[in-house]
Amino acid sequence: DWKKKNPEETVSGEYKMGWHNLDPRTFPSKGLFYPENMKIQIRPATVKEIRQFSVVQDDDPFSIDEAMNHIMSSCSNVNIKGKISNFKDILEEDRIHLVLAIKDLTFVKGENALQIPLECHECDTAQEIEFCNDSLKPGTVDDKIMRYFDMDEKLFNIRTKSSGEFTIKPPCIGVMKVITQWIKEQSQTPGQRRKLDQGFIKCLPFLVHDWRGFNIEKIKELQMEFAGWDATKYSTIFQLVDLIKIGVDEKVHGMCKSCGAEIHVPISFPR
Fold first, then answer.
1. What is the largest CA-CA distance in the chain?
2. 8 A C-beta contact, residue 134 and residue 173
């Protein structure tokens, strides 16, 4: 895979040409939650960055998370007029799309394709399916909630009769970095892990709209506020979060090379 071949042989000469513009409308989020003046660029990974990625522990979600953020911080450029901006402004659900786009830009001849082995459920033929953007299926925001979308603020502003007003949006990488750090600190022992409120963890990312100024102290404040909600408000936010989830689903999709049936396999980082 792209972590193991000799990077000196595969880093594209296109690197010298600089950065490449990306259209957020091609992302899983369709660019719905980004400012109109936001510019996003990527470049191929260097030898050093590829080597950094090679130390990823494929069975450790935190290791994968850190490796993808490292690639994003080095190989993506984000500009929002009038704001300090960087890769942290990219939505968490769009991150895998950009990482795979960086990989394709790094290996322009298709070398080091990420292949996931599987057997066709129809004809039992053993084969491989490529893990790439073309084999991922983006989700869509439920039509029932799109009428609450604020085009100016790029978020959902929902007024309810029983639970007040909610302003929610899918989280960006910067917000998730803080939340991930907090989870790591809170789950160093089995006892700490058992105390984590999974409902709060599910909803928290959607309640924070900007990574700037967001920190662990803010999480503690939100945790106290969340604890004071009644059952109706809990139920409402859970439903809303499910309705606005975006990004790709958790499988790689393709067609069987033998019988032509649709085939699917859970996303993983191949060795």
1. 62
2. no
